[in-house]
Amino acid sequence: MGQTLAEDLAGKADLVAWDIAFADPDSIPSRALPRFQLRAAESALDAVRGAHLVISAVTAARDLDAAQSVADGLEGGAFFLDLNSCSPGQKTASAKVIHAGGGRYVEAAVMSPIGPKRIASPMLLGGTHARAFLQAADGLGFAGATAYSEVIGQAAATKLCRSVMIKGIEALLTESMLAARHYGVEQVVLDSLSDLLPLPRLEPHGGLHDEPLPGTRDPPGGGDARGRPHRRRSRRAPPPSATPSQSARTGPPTTRARCPTTSPPCSTPSVRISPGDHRLPRPLHHRARSP
């Protein structure tokens, strides 16, 4: 996340970054610094000195620590954008710390993977300063941000409840497919779920494929008699002597990425925005414009 922020905000504001890993010149964050147009701060307080916007992007367990590390150095009225994925209780505690330090806390819940749209990803903003933040940050690139609620914690709760559903479905589908592959019935199982999940056909070697059957004509409105498009389907043969547990062990390797500029436990990049008069806040659910 830290790299994405540094890249997408470059040229739009004076950037200052802080990471506790900067103390080690051989750490990944330290080695990544030359790639970005920013200054490496000597401490968290140094990072936020004079900043009009502070962005916290740390691990969930360090959300409150990050807020506490900068609260005493915040400029009066500076925005503190909390991008961390943590509980509503953690967000509320961090908000109290920032408000006590004279800052304006804005809760943010990123509602999609950050990769495709980067800082323009959909974000739910919470707190009484969310609308003012959208106005002040207009032009920085937070095009998917929406003022969602004035109650701190509701944006985080929305994201967490959605994650329970999404990750639960992913886990159930994975477990089901491992067992189905063992018995050679995975495509039949997927076909039986077609009314619930719009799933494409599986290629014999793991690819996804979805194409119309040649020589078929869709009924009025498209698709089969039930309005669904015609698709060619095939079953996948089970691997020799494979068991569900063996299939799990021999699946594709998991790759873990670590953000060079925001490694835990605490990093608080500082974005300095040119001061200006604060215009009237926009109504709730207004989206920030793209730069």
Please explain how this structure is put together:
It is a single chain. By secondary structure, the chain is of the alpha/beta class. The chain has 2 domains: 2-158 and 260-272, NAD(P)-binding Rossmann-like Domain (Rossmann fold); 161-204 and 217-249, no CATH class. It is 32% helix and 13% strand.
Descriptive keywords:
disordered C terminus, alpha/beta, single chain, Rossmann fold, eight-stranded mixed sheet, 291 residues
Give me a quick take on this structure.
The chain is 32% helix and 13% strand. It is of the alpha/beta class and 291 residues long.
Oligomeric nature of the chains: single chain
Strand content: 5-15%
Tell me, briefly, the overall form: globular
Radius of gyration: 24 Å
CATH superfamily of the largest domain: NAD(P)-binding Rossmann-like Domain
Average pLDDT figure: 76
H-E string: HEHEHEHEHEHEHEHHEEHE
Low-confidence runs (pLDDT<50, min 5 residues)?
A: 207-220, 228-270, 272-291
> If you consult CATH, what is the topology of the largest domain?
Rossmann fold
Question: Termini, distance in Å?
Answer: 20 Å
Give helix % range. 25-40%
CATH C-level label of the largest domain:
Alpha Beta
What's the number of helices?
10
